[in-house]
Amino acid sequence: MKTLLSKLARTGAVALALAAGLAVAPGASAQEEMRLDRAPDNTENLASLQHGAQLFVNYCLSCHSASLMRYNALTQLGLSQKEIEQNLLFTTDKIGNTMSVAMRPEDAKAWFGVTPPDLSVEARARSSDWLYTYLRSFYRDETRPTGWNNMVFPNVGMPHVLWQLQGVQTAKYEDETNSETGEKEHRFVGFEQAKPGTMSRVDYDSAVADLVAYMTWMSEPTQHGRRQLGVWVLLFLGVLTFLAWRLNAAYWKDVK
């Protein structure tokens, strides 16, 4: 378990000190339509959730808070309090505290023009598919203040804090003529790897899937218990409906 939690260096927390929020910077354009990739469902895989929690603490928690989640709730992922204290407790010394951000909101607004949003329920607000595609769609753009842009969220104020893992990629475009208007259009056709990262593409996609799985779990830790309870409730109601139907037939069978 300890080996799993130590896979990523804590240097990511330092890199994230430069991160801004998921919220778009002032004057940014609306979200561009782009097909979202289906996020793998790892929310029942404890190893993936533990890895995602490590990624979240290392790369997200320096700027983004998760004020609705307490560190001791991570014991639901199969972690002991000692493992949480040794590997995940970076912003506080009390395991019962919430996942608060180290950076002050006023400083974030002064540096980036916007306060990074709380990520407690971001997966519910955006969807896991959106987050999974978003975190894999950053590309180098020298026209942006941070040097990065995102194909899912154009002109986003957040830099690519996972770039050391993924590497640097650029956006590829092709010019084509619109058959209806006859005008030339600049169409996005994919990404091109300009500089490799510490992870291969497959490994990076897997890491992002783990991070998204954790954020999805964090947005509603009781979701699987709720679903299981819902199944039993529906089965009970089905049996009760059948008994009521047969009882009604028995009462009225002699009535003409």
Describe, in plain words, how this protein is organized in 3D.
The protein is of the alpha+beta class and 256 residues long. It contains 10 helices and 6 strands; from the N terminus they run αααβαβαααββαββαα. The strands form 3 sheets. A two-stranded antiparallel ribbon has the order 1-2. A two-stranded antiparallel ribbon has the order 3-4. α3 crosses α9.
List keywords for this structure.
256 residues; alpha+beta; two-stranded antiparallel sheet; 6 strands; 14% strand
Major beta-sheet overview: 2 strands, antiparallel
State which percent range the strand residues make up.
5-15%
Question: Count the helices. How many?
Answer: 10
Find the structural class using helix and strand composition.
Answer: alpha+beta
Q: Order of SSEs, N→C?
A: HHHEHEHHHEEHEEHH
* Distance from first to last alpha carbon: 71 Å
The proportion of residues forming helix, as a percent range, comes to 40-55%
Shape: extended
Strand order of the largest sheet: 1-2
Task: Offer a concise description of the structure.
The chain has 256 residues and is of the alpha+beta class.
How are the SSEs placed, and which strands pair?
Blueprint: H1 2-5, H2 11-15, H3 46-59, E1 66-70, H4 81-87, E2 98-99, H5 105-112, H6 122-126, H7 128-134, E3 138-140, E4 148-150, H8 163-166, E5 167-177, E6 184-196, H9 201-219, H10 223-252
Antiparallel strand pairs: 1-2, 3-4, 5-6
